[in-house]
Automatic annotation (TrEMBL):
Name of the protein described by the UniProt record: Glutamyl-tRNA amidotransferase
TM region(s), chain numbering: 66-88, 100-119
Keywords annotated in UniProt: Membrane, Transmembrane, Transmembrane helix
Length: 121
């Protein structure tokens, strides 16, 4: 008898009732406006055509790649600054040296395009 009662209690506990979240008219209107704006932005996006000149395409690709390289350099620069700061806090000379190397590498990577332009003229 006790086992049957426990099974019934377990069965009752596993049944879950889901309800809709209450949504006011103001929230419904805001949601409708948001959905409409997303649809307008998606449907109204203009088609982008590639440039006719192959040199322009290569220059655009070069600009994009150097932008990515600059972003990686900035990340390394920030990591180097944090590493130097932590080494100053913990008085660890080897970590300080690694921090300054990372910092220098980040600066070089960040300004790679400008350095190459100076070298090539």
């Amino acid at each position: 008898m006790k086992l049957d009662m426990r099974k019934k209690q377990e069965k009752k506990e596993t049944i879950k009732v889901t309800k809709k979240l209450p949504m006011t008219a103001k929230m419904k209107r805001a949601m409708a406006v948001y959905i409409a704006m997303v649809l307008i932005m998606t449907a109204g996006a203009s088609t982008v055509f590639a440039a006719d000149d192959p040199l322009t395409v290569i220059n655009n690709l070069s600009t994009f790649i150097f932008g990515l390289i600059r972003a990686i350099g900035m990340i390394l620069l920030g990591f180097g600054i944090v590493q130097v700061g932590l080494s100053l806090k913990s008085h660890d000379p080897s970590q300080r040296a690694n921090g300054f190397l990372t910092l220098a590498g980040g600066v070089i990577i960040t300004f790679a395009k400008e350095i190459l332009n100076l070298i090539t003229g």
